[in-house]
Amino acid sequence: MLRAAALGLAALAVSAPVGSAQTLAPPAASILVLNQDRLLTQTEFGQRIQQELDAASRALAAENRQIESQLTEEELDLTERRPLMSPEDFRVLADEFDSRVVAIRAAQDAKSRDIQTQSEAAQQRFFEETFPVLLEIVQARGAAVLLDSRTVLLSAGSVDVTDAAIVAIDEALGDGGEDPLISLPGVTPDEQ
To answer: In 10 A of CB 168, how many CB atoms?
Structure first.
């Protein structure tokens, strides 16, 4: 008896008018996948961000090495002069040196944070400027959703639009323009 009732319901569901089935079913949606990391590493714009970040970081590291060398020389000089000075005079010079070292370290740390902030801003700009290009790809393919590949467990290769996006971004934006995106304060981009 239950089996007959189940078969009857199944037959009723199959024989329901097509129009009512369409209103109950959600519209078909196409989903595309994109690897954002590859956009940053393989587009001209993204590569420029990384190159400028590397250059600013190298310039800061070179500056830090130069400062360290100068401070080491000053410390050695102060150590050599210590036997010729009164303890009070030495303490004044040592305290002044320590204060300068702390101030220099704080300034260099601030430069490092500034470079990181510039890098984050450049990446934000990258994604803001690539958004219209990505939207065109989504619309051209009739998709409803574009997901970052890191959030997808499994997908067919045909839904990955990363390669197409890289080509389209390079064509539309190139390397992102003339002005530096990341620079070390006080150092021109040519010196980096």
So the answer is: 18
Residue 121 covered by a domain: yes
In a domain, 11, yes or no: no
Q: What is the C-alpha to C-alpha distance for residues 150 and 148, in angstroms, rounded to an integer?
A: 5
At 10, the pLDDT band (50, 70, 90 cuts) reads very low
* 57-62 contacts at long range (C-beta below 8 A, 24 or more positions apart): 57/115, 58/192, 59/184, 59/187, 59/191, 59/192, 60/108, 60/111, 60/112, 60/115, 60/184
Q: Containing H/E element for 162? A: helix 162-173
What is this structure's pTM? Answer: 0.74
The answer as to whether 94 is a domain residue is yes
Residue 187 confidence class, pLDDT cut points 50, 70, 90? low
Q: pLDDT digits over 108-123, tens only?
A: 999 999 999 999 999 9
Tally of structural domains, the chain: 1
Give the mean pLDDT of the chain: 83
Buried residues in 128-138 as b, exposed as e (16+ CB within 10 A): eebeebbeebb
Q: Three-state secondary structure along 29-78?
A: CCEEEECHHHHHHHCHHHHHHHHHHHHHHHHHHHHHHHHHHHHHHHHHHH
